[in-house]
Amino acid sequence: MLEFLPPRIATAVRYINLNLLYELRLRADKPLYANYGGKFVWLGAQGVAASASEAMLISRGEVEDTLFAASGFCVYSVENQIRRGFVTAACGERIGICGTVVYEHGAVHSVRDVTSLCIRIPHEIRGCADSIYRKCLSDEIRSLLILAPPGEGKTTILRDLTRLVSEKTAMNILVVDERGELSAGELGRTADVVRFADKRTAFCEGIRAMRPELIVTDELLREDYAAVRRALVSGIVVFASAHLKRYKDVPEKIFARYVILNGLGEVGEILDKDGSHVD
Questions:
Q1: pLDDT digits (tens, 9 = 90+) for 156-198
Q2: pLDDT at 63
Q3: What is the pTM for the complete model shown?
Q4: Pair 157, 252 in one domain
Q5: Backbone angles phi, psi at 37, to 5 degrees
Q6: Is the pLDDT of residue 108 over 90?
Q7: Which residue, among 100, 92, 108, 26, has the nearest Cα to 65 in the 3D structure?
């Protein structure tokens, strides 16, 4: 994990508990910032710093070196990811990119002069989805959507939920991992993974090729609901997540259960397809 970090930053990270590190923010000519235990803190040469003035100042070269190493020392091999604003490293660390977007023929061609990186560190927490399984799925495996803002544990819960269903039911599961982050951990013996394909392609071709009983995917957007709808009418159960806070903001109420998180990995409320509370 985080093997791509430049030596100076890697040394600083060794002074903190990696199990509590959720994000690293590298900004050229600015202090090192991190989401540590659910709170943002400054990081210095020996771990957490008391203030920004005591934090490690990140150079533009370190930003560039980090991206180059995370790309496997071949940026061209991940240029399709870079066009979409991210790179996924070897252990599933998703790295968001900010810089100058270059367009060609009306489409994004590349990102150059990279100035900021947001490194999201995946975590595997066995048992974090136990309560959701018990309340939503123990009597029947039904479709569900997990709602929460970015960085509140949706992917971690989806990953553990996939493992639970695989272990308890041995269903054939197709994991549609568009950004290479969802599959960074144990998914169970009956899970198959398609990475870096858009949801429309992965759902359509995956259903034909793999005949899944359950499809699991992350970060559902409005344009993805058509693919989900087709899967549901085909008799396939779908688990997904979305960057939403409220049930009323879900574009299409096509899931059987809606799990709303209340803070980092904490289940707030569970609603049925009509918006009624489920005990």
A1: 999 999 999 999 999 999 999 998 899 988 999 999 999 999 9
A2: 96
A3: 0.86
A4: yes
A5: 65, 25
A6: no
A7: 26
- Whole-number mean pLDDT of the chain? 94
- Same domain for 265 and 144, yes or no, is yes
| Same domain flag for 252 and 143 | yes
Say what the pLDDT of residue 75 is: 80
Do 76 and 53 belong to one domain?
yes
Mean pLDDT over 57-63 rounds to 96
The whole domain housing 100 covers: 7-120
